[in-house]
Structure formats: structure tokens, C-alpha cells
Specification:
Distance between the termini: 55 Å
Structural class: mainly alpha
Oligomer: single chain
Helix content: over 70%
Order of helices and strands: HHH
Number of helices: 3
Largest sheet: none
């Protein structure tokens, strides 16, 4: 494998691993959302890197990454709205207390 591609894939792998660890271990909804965004950014880096090294003259990976960033921004806005509504109802954004909203 080309050494240049590893210079991009290793930090992306580290970012994705940190995102998965944060998503699994955190109890705060905002920290979980940040971990999810970290994983999405790592995937976007992979899209760009593979497009650059596999198809150097084409831009499909870049365009797909731009669409993924736009969708991630919309997802973040929606998630923040949900988190704000949960905070207004419970005065807490801890995942373990969300089950009390059912009743």
C-alpha cells in the first residue's frame, strides 16, 4: 500500500475509534452527538482520500463528502432541537433518565 495514503488513513482510523469509544461510553447526549460527528468526519476523510488515490482526475468523492457534510449539519440541528426539548422537560440530558419520559 502506498505510504501517502497511510498518512491520511491512520489519523482517520484514530478519529473513528475515538468516536466509537465516546459514543459507547458517554451518558450525556451532547457528548454522544459530538462522538457521532467525529465518526462522520472520519468517514468523510476516507471518501476524499480514496477518491484522490483511486480516481485522481474525478471529483465524485469530494461531491459525496459535501453532501454528507450537509446532511450531518441538518442532523446536528435536529439533534440539538431534540436535546433542548429533553432538557426543558427534565432539566438533564443524561441518557439513563430518558426512560422516564415514556410515562
Amino acid at each position: 500500500m502506498n505510504l501517502n495514503i497511510l498518512m491520511y488513513l491512520i489519523p482517520s482510523l484514530i478519529m473513528f475509534g475515538c468516536g466509537v469509544y465516546g459514543f459507547i461510553t458517554r451518558k450525556n447526549m451532547i457528548a454522544i452527538m459530538i462522538s457521532l460527528e467525529l465518526m462522520l468526519n472520519a468517514v468523510d476523510i476516507n471518501f476524499v482520500v480514496f477518491n484522490r488515490f483511486l480516481f485522481p482526475g474525478q471529483m465524485e468523492g469530494m461531491f459525496f463528502t459535501l453532501f454528507a457534510i450537509a446532511i450531518a449539519a441538518a442532523e446536528t440541528a435536529l439533534a440539538l432541537a431534540i436535546i433542548i426539548n429533553v432538557f426543558r422537560a427534565m432539566r438533564n440530558v443524561d441518557i439513563t433518565d430518558i426512560n422516564r419520559l415514556k410515562f
